[in-house]
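User: I'm new to structure prediction. If I give you an amino acid sequence, what do you actually give back? Let's try with this one:
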Amino acid sequence: MDIFVCSDCGNETTKWSGRCPSCGAWNTMRDAGRIIGKGKKRKSAASASVTEAEPFAAADGEMKPRARSGIGELDTVLGGGVVPGMAVLVGGEPGIGKSTLMLQMASRLASAKQPALYVSGEESAQQIRLRGLRLGIETEELFLLCSGNLQHVEQEIARLRPGLLVIDSIQAMQNPDVESAPGSMSQMRECTARLVRLAKDNDLPTFLVGHVTKEGMVAGPRIVEHMVDTVLYFEGEGHLKILRAQKNRFGSTNEIGVFEMRADGLHEIADPSGIFLHGLDHAPGVAVGGMMEGSRAFLVEVQSLVTPASYGTPQRVSIGYDPKRLSVALAVLEKFLAINLRQHDVFLNLAGGLRTRDPALDLAVAAAVVSGFRDKPLPRGTVLLGELGLGGEVRPVSQAARRVNEAAKLGFKRVLLSPRAKASADKLEIVAVEHLSGLFAAIDSGVQR
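Assistant: Good question. You get back a string of structure tokens that encode the predicted 3D arrangement of the chain. For your 449 residues, that looks like this:
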């Protein structure tokens, strides 16, 4: 029987249609191929082993100890380390560093008692060894298996009893019991289900490398993301790479780790705020704000460029910051500061390739736009923290104390925020601002002449 699967929600149907009957997405129904069992027939539900239910109070609620991967930024994104039996999906564009990070992690977690198994269905053993030599990997407890056959992987797991399994990539894996090509909807779903069950039954941490589409999503049905415990995405351009957690059953979501790609592999950056700050906070159109990603506070430069519009409709371009929030900030500025931005193009960028929806950057965005419009720099050593209300009021932000402490650690002199925010720091001036009018009065008095 032909089965069609929605690539967005994973809904199955026996008939093709232009619109998914479950999620309503258009042109997402894909032929999953014919699923025909080979060899031994599957056991029926009556003959299969049954696990009896147990009382909730009798269930073991203790968290199993985590294993340190030896890569601090990766441990932070995972929530403190590698949990036994966890299944992790690592996605990212081709060449961004997924395989490099997995090989570095596998080499550091490999030990004599529990070796690591690295499975590659796309590269040969010689290619992986050459990368390992470049990364300086010399451990003998890391085993390579260059095969895309899921049965071969299961046999090696039973023989080696590894402490870590890396699958590179899930699109290259093939279950011989499924009659379809590797990378198809049915293959990805069946292989992921088998690998996740192996991870749970054997307390085997499993990392699945996944390719992404041009839209930035993991190729294949979205149901694959729901089957794993954690979903990590690699992003960034140039040498700076950001690893972001979008789903994590064992830690905080939206946690990020920052890496730098060098000739000998990925190196973690211990002080990410120093990377995102380029020392241009005294230039026109630049303001420094504080953002939270998971449990970590970062300071980031908000850069704006305001120029007269060359065409009838002015442009509003935002990179890293929510475009809708930018439109709201511009409307508030026009309403309460009488700044005419309707005839100007506004370009906004978060330095370092960061992306966030944290409303705490609203105040820094407004200040950067006005600074760019007036062509006057903001006071040096100033951090702006606050959510911008529709009435022009400056609202308090969450975890203000952590953001202020980060500013003090990096040597900033003063922080502008809402009077209702609870934050204090030694050797740091806290300036309370209730409304935009008060904010820019303080800025005008402190501009470097």
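You can read the tokens as a compact description of the fold. Here is one thing that stands out. The longest strand covers residues 296-308.
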